[in-house]
Design goal:
There is one protein chain. By secondary structure, the protein is of the alpha+beta class. It folds into 2 domains: about 55 residues, no CATH class; about 220 residues, Glucose Permease (Domain IIA), CATH 2.70.70.10. The protein contains 6 helices and 14 strands. The two termini are about 40 Å apart.
């Protein structure tokens, strides 16, 4: 039942989106007359139902983390990581229970996380942009998307507000492609499936039905979908359809945690929660793969 409800999440988000829109319209006295004829109790019930159902997601049984190879090479930093807490992204939506975001450490030329400017930074200004992304395990490619353009970073105040309100809500309703951007889904030989998201436009090296092995390049790091700057998002699931999948925990067997904190992520570098996967880097921690 949870999987069926989760598949329909974009539908459950519609009444929430409608409620927010009506709230904004009411401020300006612009609510359509036909909406005013709907009983308030009915409106509230529909919106509340959407809130409740949109929070329903599949859960996997307790299990040991699946051991995989890291999807990158070199020096990287982690954020929103299962090495900090679970759920790592604060949600189980799209099988993201133990997802991790990684980016390359900043250089003197890397744009600030937030800056005062009218226009945000281009993706090409970030060191992670264009870095190779590799398969974490053997399996078969079951899903791809490759033609979404790379957008500018969301590193101005106005861009951040836009991303966290209008853009975020619209992408959630639009579905997985709008959230993941360019992506690859691989079904592993053990039945698990991995998602590699926010990949660079036209960078995919694989196609549906193709077999891959650990270390095979899938594409390049980009800035597509629900992304504030170029980075790689990966997570492990118990099936290939993210809307029906339960998230699974994983660990990488070919990384060395440095204990060093990326300066731009120092504010979120805290002691891990008790349910964190200690073999994975915590928020802000730099690791080598």
């Amino acid at each position: 039942m949870r999987r069926t409800i989760s598949r329909l999440k974009p539908l459950w988000l519609l009444p929430i989106f409608m409620g927010v829109a009506l709230g904004v319209l009411s401020i300006f006295g612009a609510v359509p007359s036909f909406i005013g004829a709907v009983p308030p109790w009915l409106m509230i019930t529909v919106i509340a139902l959407g809130v409740v159902l949109s929070a329903v997601h599949p859960k996997a049984p307790e299990h040991e983390p699946h051991v995989l190879a890291a999807p990158v090479r070199g020096r990287w930093a982690a954020l929103n990581t299962p090495g900090q807490q679970l759920p790592s992204h604060g949600t189980r939506f799209l099988g993201q229970y133990a997802a991790i975001d990684i980016l390359q450490p900043t250089t003197p030329e890397t744009p600030a996380k937030v800056r005062k400017a009218l226009r945000s930074s281009s993706s090409e200004e970030y060191p992670s942009f264009g870095a190779p992304v590799y398969s974490m395990a053997s399996g078969v490619v079951t899903g791809t998307r490759s033609r979404v353009r790379d957008h500018r970073a969301r590193n101005t105040w106005q861009a951040l507000v836009y991303m966290m309100t209008i853009e975020g809500m619209v992408r959630s309703v639009a579905g997985r492609g709008a959230l993941l951007g360019n992506h690859v889904i691989v079904r592993h030989d053990d039945g698990t499936a991995a998602v590699y998201a926010h990949l660079r436009n036209s960078s995919l090296r694989v196609q549906v039905g193709q077999r891959v092995n650990p270390g095979d390049q899938l594409g390049e790091v980009g800035n597509t979908g629900n992304s504030s700057e170029p980075h790689l998002h990966v997570h492990l699931m118990d099936r290939t359809n993210p809307h029906a999948a339960a998230g699974l925990t994983m660990t990488w067997d070919n990384i060395a945690k440095s204990g060093e904190i990326e300066p731009s992520l120092a504010e979120i570098a805290k002691e891990p929660e008790s349910n964190a996967i200690r073999s994975m880097p915590r928020n802000g921690e730099i690791f080598h793969a």
